[in-house]
Amino acid sequence: MTPLALASIALFAVAPAVAQEAPGRAPMTEAAAEPDADLPRVAIQTSAGPIVVALDTERAPITANNFLAYVDQHKLDGVTFYRTVKVQDRFGFVQFGVNGDPVLSLPPIRHEPTSETGVHHVSGTLSIARLEPGSARGEFTIMVGDQRPGFDADPAAPGDKLGYAAFGHVVEGMDVVERIMDAPVDPAATVRGAFKGEVPATPVKVISATRLKP
After folding, report:
1. pTM for the full model?
2. CA–CA separation, 178 and 180 (whole Å)
3. Could you give phi then psi for residue 48, rounded to 5 degrees?
4. Tens-place pLDDT, residues 80-133
5. Rounded to an integer, what distance in angstroms lies between the CA atom of residue 6 and that of residue 109?
């Protein structure tokens, strides 16, 4: 078991195995259609280029507003994309966030399963990592390729069957996300003993994350 500080990100370690079981089952899709223009947007300036995300505060209000709290309190400024999982070409995910830092972490939030929100893990979806339901804090992932049903709530899945909470979509910068995922990893590096083979050799830095004006 990884240290408690890693708890909020450890469960995503099982995701590559889910995807590898049937890599052709979930075909690559384009980034999700542009969400409603009234939804709040955040510009994530990274050392690899800019990414803009729209947060679905209407269908996944708890999870989306949690992300906005990290943005508004500047807790994501200076963090890194510390994990990249590439199952195959244009299929996998990248992960970034406070990396278990207790100083930067906000209180955990209630889990909003995809079966409740209707926000699914298609390409470009922004999601949040967790262990048990209600443990998610400040670790976020971006999907590359359609990750249904592996990340969605699924009554046939093992464990608690509730999947992960999806709460937004990339509206600009999927090329940057793919570039982050495609970058070389350090085969020996870990994050406190976890994610061996998935840690970037040169982690991409989040320079700033800022709300865009409507």
Report:
1. 0.86
2. 5
3. -105, -5
4. 999 999 999 999 999 999 999 999 999 999 999 999 999 999 999 999 999 999
5. 16
CA torsion sign for 143, 146, 152, 155 is negative
Q: List CB contacts of 103: < 8 A, sequence separation 6 or more.
A: none
User: In this structure, what token pair is assigned to residue 31?
Assistant: 């980034």
The greatest distance separating any two alpha carbons of the chain, rounded to the nearest whole angstrom, comes to 44
One DSSP character per residue, 71-106 reads: HHTT-STT-EEEEEEEEETTEEEEEEE-TT-TTTPP
| Residue among 180, 144, 148 nearest 50 (CA) | 180
- The mean pLDDT of 131-155, rounded to a whole number, is 95
The token pair at 175 is: 């090329």
